[in-house]
Write a structure and sequence with these properties.
The chain is 46% helix and 16% strand. α4 packs across α11 and α5 crosses α11. It has 4 domains: 172 residues, Sandwich (Immunoglobulin-like), CATH 2.60.40; 223 residues, no CATH class; 55 residues; 109 residues, Glutaredoxin (3-Layer(aba) Sandwich). It has a 5-stranded mixed sheet with strand order 12-14-13-15-16, covered by helices on one side. It has a 4-stranded antiparallel sheet with strand order 1-2-8-5, with no helix packed on it. A 4-stranded antiparallel sheet has the order 6-7-3-10, with no helix packed on it. The chain contains 19 helices and 16 strands.
Amino acid sequence: MLKKLSLLFVLLFSIQSFAQFGMDLNLVKASYYTSFDQLHPGSEVKFAVQLDIEETWHINSSKPKDDFLIGTSVSFEGGENFTVSNLTFPHAEELTFSFSENPVSVYEGIVYITALIKVKEGLAAGSYDLPVSIEYQACNDASCMPPTNIDTVLSLNVVSTTTPVSEINNEIFSKVDIDYSAPVSEDGDDEDSLGKTLEESGLFISLILIFLGGLALNLTPCVYPLIPITIGYFGGQSEGNTGKLFMLGLFYVLGMALTYSVVGVVTSLSGAVFGSLMQNPIVIIVIAAVLVALAFSMFGMYEFKMPDSWVTKAGGAKSGVLGAFFMGLTMGIVAAPCIGPFVLGLVTAVAAKGDPVYGFFMFFTLAVGLGTPYLFLAIFSGKLKALPRAGFWMEAVKHIFGFILIGMAIYFIIPILPKSFSGYVLPVYMLLAAIYLLLFDKLANNQKGFRIFKSVFSVVIIALAVWMLWPVEKKSPDWQNFTIAEYEASVNSGDKIIIDFYADWCVPCKELDALTFSDQRVIDKSKEFINYKVDMTKSMSETTEEIRDKFRIIGMPTIIFIDESGKEVKRLTGFVNADEFLKIMQDI
């Protein structure tokens, strides 16, 4: 207590001395910046104040450790025309000075204080003043100045929504960490609504809602690849024994849930693109290798089984459990790009919570919901092996499933192959595999029913492969390559804009191209827009990260609609059909 009183006495003496002699050293200079030259009613602008602190001096941080120290603060008098939010101070340094035995929380050199300023909806065009006041106390290693205010008036020019606005001061805002608020959709269902629902529902109800959400994800197209993989693997397992099939399916789902949970938590806490592991060639190759390894087991080269000592302790045969669990771990990564409004909301909620344990259980429950149908699919597909009484029929069925697994392995490596021939690899494989099954695989041909099935199956695959290889004219909107400069020029020109963020590993993206963007009505209407297509496949590159941060992209596909005023009016985070897409375009 005596030390604090002594320190307080020294500070008061220093302040009194400076005040007595009227010393004004102009120790801190303030510069003010906004992110737009003009503002639209209802829009949001980034604000930053740069404090340039004289060398050998410092100012107290916004949260000084001692009550008698005056902290740095910023106040606004916006009235009803402007709302200030997300006021953020820089990271403080902990330094020790001669007047203090303990470290002091301070700012030194050049620092930035940031905030978001929201313009009132419907505000008339004109110039408006926003008074800003900065209070601080400057000290050096021996003494402190009296608390000081820097007052200024920020002039904000509000224009009509038809007047273009331009981004400015990019060199300043590239140095600070501040993002615009998340957009709210027209129906009021914003990205954080799920987080609010979970917060209000309690843990038990939240887990039920998330489980149901996981079940609903099976209606999205990006989980379709899991269906043939599941059928292909479990179709030749456990001689149709229901108990063993259930155990295998359970470990498959648990493996999927574990990987999905880890990927989801890491994504939400790190801010990376959800499902971005699928853009890593190493991950893709590992997934393909696992599928090929499982396919070889279908051809009888080996069998996955637990160590004999474990089997003895477990009291029964558990062959294939390790293979099922390992495949589930891999398939969790495949399922991860199933980004939709529900998953997007969960990512946002977990990120806001900042609790990894909470996030893990939320995503684990979601993944169990996603994987539950595959448990029953595993039992059903495994039962196919129990249909024959005995003989080569079973081995012939396993061969078919083995070819399916290899086909899925090829499907996953297509994004990393050269685009000049990547489109031909899978159909050519399908053609060769079907011909082999039809002409060279003689197993169980003495079984008339199976021979008919295999022949029909092979002919269907050959027809599908020929259809995939048949050259057709691809119809789509007039997509332009995206750059920040081109985008800003379009905004300044008052153009309506559509931006499609896609990735080569994103299944819904491909479905959008095939079913929605190829619709002639969508193509005709898109001529009223500037259409940009942004390749987010390499989601860890510097350019992609810059774009991701600018537009707050969490997963693919993401489609953003921007009106003539440069304002985002709609955001899609999943597949929509041509009718829905056309209606959105017509409403803008």
